[in-house]
């Protein structure tokens, strides 16, 4: 357990749970703490031996440089690597990219010794947390190998954290960029729509006047008595020949242009430079583990890194949708490299959020399988893990699957029988069905209706009075002085004191708004009867009455099993967990 739980308190709690589960007599706390202390010391001695044996001279020199100041800096390198900024300014991002290169170099030199130490993520956080909280002189006073262990864990911890930091910045920048671009695009579309409507109205008015004039001329010719029918036809043809035949062409062009809008890509391209200044260093620095679904996207990322961000028309476009790929070419055939980078950043961000792009040296963005029990430990401790989880009967899945198959078949048969016997279920000609809900009978009532009042609004005084009638809680509010005093007090006064204190109304205000209760009487009752012991005794009476009620048991599936959100059960999770905390209810 010293490999999984480095904190002595966690090991102690786990030992108690283990002994209790296996029905082993629990020794004294001193015996357990001595064993835990010895186990941790042995674990530390093993770490020091591994560090002394396998740490190379180059790695020692790199770790020693963390505790010295450079020529152009007045602070230690270790101190400079402690804090990670969340700023999205290009200068700060480039600084973090430089820190990433430094940490990557250190981690590459220490990766072999870190694998031999087998600290895990919990151990890495433990030793690194000690470095983050300590001053330089406190770390330098440690023994050499012990100091190297802490420094190596700090490098690994910061290397994992800076991965998370850069990816967080990338996702935040992309989210802000998409929000701003979407807002600008909507404003642009609104303005274009206004111009389009105005232009369309002008074209419609122009066409209307032209058509109306043409119809008027034709009507005047047809109504003329001085012309024969042959002459009217000749004149109408002359009028038609003089009119423009393409008066509706502008309208058709406007309608066609309104259906194909390319302004979204124009907005993305206009803001591409601002996005590149922030995300180019991040994408160049990170190394992803990709799934097979995004192999084409990984090809584009590698091309981007190899060309140092200078993409050309030969850049991979298989990861793009047909519409996005078509938008990369202008009308003159030139390649829109700025738009390509924006689209690449968008697809990378979507792949990270979907889990198709992962980072191995990370706390938050690792592959899903790395959060589960590793195969080596599963093969080694399979029986023990199944016993701890209470799943030993599932070790052989064949009988379980057969039993489930029989149960499923029986349930299908029962469901089909209920369907045949249900007069309210009707099948349609297309095979679908419809269930007609019958009208409820007037005699049918809710089984819980008699337990609740007919009115929806119940006075609090009535609730407290009803509670007292069932459990006698007001009888526990006795006078502090048992002799030479009158024990009788009106129940209305005690109820007013409970509401005044419990509802934060105040004793004086409660006395003013209550009938037949004076302020001095209420203050005297509160001061002499509302002691902590009396309040606890009244609460105990209420809880005792609640335990004897039948209402909480009406809808309980298992009468012998009670599980609530406040029963105090808490389980520690060994190793990494997908949950936010290391424990779950």
Folded structure, characterized:
This protein has 585 residues and is an all-alpha fold. It is built from 22 helices and 6 strands. It has a two-stranded antiparallel sheet with strand order 1-2. Strands 3-4 form a two-stranded antiparallel ribbon. A two-stranded antiparallel sheet has the order 5-6. Helix 6 packs across helix 8 and helix 8 (144-223) runs antiparallel to helix 11.
Average pLDDT confidence is 82
- Strand order, largest beta sheet: 1-2
Question: What structural class do helix, strand and pairing data support?
Answer: mainly alpha
Order of helices and strands: HHHHHHHHHHHHEHHHEHHEEHHHHHEE
Q: Helical amount among residues, as a percent range? A: 55-70%
Q: Could you name the ranges where pLDDT drops below 50 across 5 or more consecutive residues? A: 565-572, 579-585
In whole angstroms, the N-to-C terminal distance is 23 Å
Q: How would you sum up the major sheet?
A: 2 strands, antiparallel
Number of helices: 22
What general form does the structure show?
extended
Radius of gyration from the alpha-carbon trace, in angstroms: 40 Å
**Beta-strand segment tally:** 6
Strand content: under 5%
